[in-house]
Amino acid sequence: MSAYETFLQEVNGKNVSVIGMGVSNTPLITLLLEAGANVTVHDRKTEEELGEMFGGLSALGVQFHVGNDYLQNLGGDIIFRTPGMHLNHPALVKARNQGSVITSEMEVFLNVCPCPVLAITGSDGKTTTTTLTCEILRQAGYTCHLGGNIGHPLLADVPMMKPEDYAVVELSSFQLMGMTCSPAAALVTNVTPNHLDIHKDMAEYIQAKTQIFNHQKPGSKLVLNADDEVSQSFVPQEGVELMKFSMRGPVADGVYLQDGFIWYSENEQHRPIMRADEIKIPGAHNVANYMAAICMTHGLVSFQDAVEVAHNFGGVEHRIELVRVKDGVRFYNDSIASSPTRTIAGLRSFSEKLILIAGGYDKHIPYDVLGPEICEHVKQLHLVGATADAIEASVRAADNFHPDELEIIRYSDFEAAIRGAASRAQSGDVVIMSPASASFDLFKNFMERGNRFKDIVNSL
Fold first, then answer.
1. How many CB atoms lie within 10 A of CB 251?
2. DSSP code for 155
3. Rounded to whole angstroms, how far apart are CA atoms 418 and 434?
4. What is the mean pLDDT of the chain?
């Protein structure tokens, strides 16, 4: 009996609670029903807001606790938490003390997946690196299943997976919290302050990231960023292969950038892979993403496979995505940039000074590093949202701030900020929406924000 079949057998007849009917949990609910579990869904939304899903699942026997009191009486043999819920939420602590097993769709998937799992986490670049890793494997002829925090949930796809396939998953710090298993290959792109509105402090955030490799077994692989201070404190488990990537020069084992070339190093032997300018998508940060993906796929593919992807891969939606050229003005959607470091990477991807639209939901992270970069790379700053004050303060506090060289305009409305930036742009300018903030003040997620930006830009 496979691990997947064992899981289905174990949940048969059990009382299973699922918190949240989000993207990752909706297929899970159907799977649990098919396995014979007694399913209860807890969701903050009301019956009306859940719409047809409420009626359809109710007809199949699913019980619901909805609305503001949705976590009252949380219990059952097994509880699948939504990724955004902290493990130490009082309702989860109480249920755990009463005997409930707390898990998640992703943790179960890692335990039952029949093929090797390559997992990527980090504060910046994890979506692009995850996508690149999958693209390189597919270029080499492998069947590759993409999921986790990107794509769609993979647990329900397990019956279609074969041992010779590969699963490539992006994992957030929320998904990793409390994880008791680790993948065959793990990558941490970097660790900078993020999601401190959920994590109690930076130490907890870092600890969550380490869960991607803390349970690795001998023969596994760990890839780390040699240029990232926090990552350099990470120590792989005994018997785990360690590879590093660096934008600053040679590493002992891994991939690095030197003199405009990407190199591979192993046992003091160095060989060039490609020129960095062969990479189609712009930005130094994407050079780092490619090097990380090459490390992850090394031993499974040829370097030529990575080169082919570099020549043809046009980037991931909402990541410095060219939306439109109108009257000589280029408009870019960088909605994924929900932290200062991501926006900094976007700003550094262009040689000219930019017109920047920024601001959004406050995750309680510091913005002091952003101010000098805006002063260096931006000529007009259009601000909107809860973080507008913090971003403007960081700019005005920067040593290189000159009021006559950087115009700052404030808005109370997202669309007004976009139209205001567009109205001031002239032929040859670049307008980029790179918020350095989360989207939850106005939108469900960064994808909805990015799509709204594109709709407005295309309506100009």
1. 21
2. G
3. 12
4. 92
